[in-house]
Amino acid sequence: SVTRHYTFNIQLQTVTRLCHTKSMVTVNGKFPGPRIVAREGDRVLIKVVNHVQNNMSIHWHGIRQLQTGWADGPAYITQCPIQTGQSYLYNFTIVGQRGTLFWHAHISWQRATVYGPLIILPKRNASYPFAKPYKEVPVIFGEWFNADPEAIINQALQTGGGPNVSDAYTINGLPGPLYNCSAKDTFKLKVKPGKTYLLRLINAALNDELFFSIANHTLTIVEADAIYVKPFETNTLLITPGQTTNVLLKAKPYFPGATFLMTARPYVTGLGTFDNSTVAGILEYESPLLHSALPIKKLPLFKPTLPPLNDTSFATNFSRKLRSLASAQYPANVPQKVDKRFFFTVSLGTRPCDKNQTCQGPNGTKFSASVNNVSFVLPNTALLQAHFFGQSFGVYNSDFPFNPINWYNYTGNSPNNTMVGNGTKVLVLPFNTRVELVMQDTSILGAESHPLHLHGFNFFVVGQGFGNYDPNEDPKSFNLVDPIERNTVGVPSGGWIAIRFLADNPGVWFMHCHLEVHTSWGLKMAWLVLDGKLPNQKLLPPPSDLPKC
Ligand code: C2O
Description:
Elements: E1 3-17, E2 20-27, E3 36-39, E4 43-50, E5 58-61, E6 87-93, E7 99-105, E8 115-121, E9 135-144, H1 149-159, E10 168-171, E11 188-191, E12 196-203, E13 209-214, E14 219-224, E15 227-234, E16 236-239, E17 244-250, E18 259-267, E19 279-285, H2 312-321, E20 340-351, E21 366-371, E22 374-376, H3 383-388, E23 421-423, E24 426-429, E25 433-443, E26 450-454, E27 459-466, E28 485-486, E29 488-491, E30 495-503, E31 507-513, H4 516-521, E32 524-529
This protein binds CU-O-CU linkage (C2O).
């Protein structure tokens, strides 16, 4: 293993899309940002230098950060932001992980423009559990806002209303030909007939789960969230913000010069997700006639069919097909026993408007989101620092509720808005606790799917269902053999999900909905995992350049 060095200069760059030009925050002037490539076992050092007026902080989404929570990146959780003119060296080692992940800004809505692929190759001499692809191609979904996304969310939070939707979805920063004034900004993938390509799909969009498909082609799913899965074929896949999926695409043996559209469009379940139509890229077959004098007869452009916007049965069937590879080499270490069971409601609702405020939420209220009736408020200093130096007083409380208020009565219309409180509360776990967490989707505004992301761990999705979780019946059908292992999972609209994880990573770990608007409204919380007894079970001391608030 080696050490990889990167420098991320946070700087403004002028970018034009949809005939709209704006100056935006980027890494090294690139949109999307640069690729990080490393191998399993490598140490990665990224020096982030902030040259812009906005504060910055970067998260390496899905990296376990064993003992190195200081490098995790969520602002006010593991570090104070990197202020203008300052820099911070992120320093972590990739242990026991290989596959596709991504990195993104983790402060306010900066990740709208500050994100990029994080690719972990297998160790040297290790191979994929599938045939080696001819080429590997990152395909990163995002959103384009004509306006400044920071201004959009600030406005929404001040008025208590919903933010403006983005103006387009993008593939590798490009909206593609189905939007006005965008045909020249189209992602193109040229393929050779008969060859196999590994597409590294990343959903970096702020607020939308996406369906994705390539016309007339089958995709073989081989990995999710940097974990190998039992391969299966599909025409369409679903990917939520925060998720990554590797697929094999086998180019057909003929079709010289033919072009096929690949498209992505939202899966819409409620208020916080928006449809802003369809991003398209082009898959184009190389033509053997390219150098001959003969004119190439252009075949028509083929278009894929995506499921209807609200196709929950597609979403459910697709997520049920995902299983860990669970082989001898890549076992699924599912906790078979549980030390602590938790039941959380994840909820989107409204709250009464504050005095002196005019709220633009439904009926003059303001939007609010919560976990177990707590709408999380970021502190003014970093939780991890406060914890490490024993200075939690006035920063956070360790009384995050184990269950929602009225948890026997969460059906349908609860928790109701008057019972939601603000708070900066953490849930404390002794080292190596085997945790089972059931998350129940509930909302007074209509049920909605929430892609929940956990920092610092992978978890196993042992069960899922619709309606209310039944603690007596549902565990009987849990999969403890080959459940999918991942870092982000959609809590189904109007249903529940059960996950298990081993709390073997000391530190403070954020958990939140990866729909940025829901995070902004408070759908977030933090776990505090205590040190274990052995030296390799303790959080390391902070680096000397850790930013100050
Ligand atoms: Cu990708 Cu806390 O986020």
